[in-house]
Task: structure prediction
Amino acid sequence: MTPEQKLAALFAAEAPPRRDYAFQIAVAERIAKRRAWLTVAALLPWLVVSGIVLWALHPVLERMSGELAPMIQPVAFVLGGAVVAAGVGLWLTSALQRSVTVAATPK
Amino acid sequence: MQGAPTDAELVRRALAGSDAAFSRLVERHQAAVRAFVRRFLGSGWAEADDVAQDAFVAAWSSLRTLKDPAGVRSWLCGIAWRKAQDRVRGARRGAARDSGWLETIEVPAGVSPEEKLALQAAMAELPTDVRACVALCLGDGWSHGEASETLGLPLGTVKSHVARGRARLLKALGGSDDA
Result:
């Protein structure tokens, strides 16, 4: 083989397959994760605004707390649980993805 | 029966929120992007594919900045090139991983493992601009104009880079210096 032919053969050997579903799935997973983080990030300003509003309304709420406590407590519990579950879910997703990627990477 | 949608049509649908359309773009262009990154980085394919995936995610994030939807392949390879350059600058490729990869080296018929190593070494010694031009034009058959557009380099520079890079690679494979 001439050096030209060797060069062409070596470059051709590095060409990936025309279709690779594993690669497409990996890209889709990364995009889904990015979208999840973007969603969480988009919610953060609203969380801050809600905190400020609650802080501003604190004196009023305190006066009403006696009457509203039975209704607010379960709602606050559910919302708090949802936030914690979303955070843990995202963390677990990224941790599991890392471990699966490491296990699947050819040695 | 309708034919396959064009890149421009897929970009339009992806911008409207279609994940399926973006997935078709990935399917259509993954081979070109991955081949380019593999040749540019010259290391294990897993690292090159990781960079290529990063490039597609970055493309998804910045799809609105694509000026010419018909030129999506060049645009994707341009993003991949910047990602690959970042990876090279990061110099995260350790000697341990390289030696592990060398043990599993596979070569096409008619080429020895030593020649493949010589080519890898010669590619690694090329300046990044030259390497990128060689990877696109010699590796994947892109025209000088396409490579110029993708890499953001003047046409004349691309031509001289390809000629210089080709001469060095052929020399590494046993050719003459002025090949």
Observations:
- The mean pLDDT of chain A is 82.
- The radius of gyration of chain A is 26 Å.
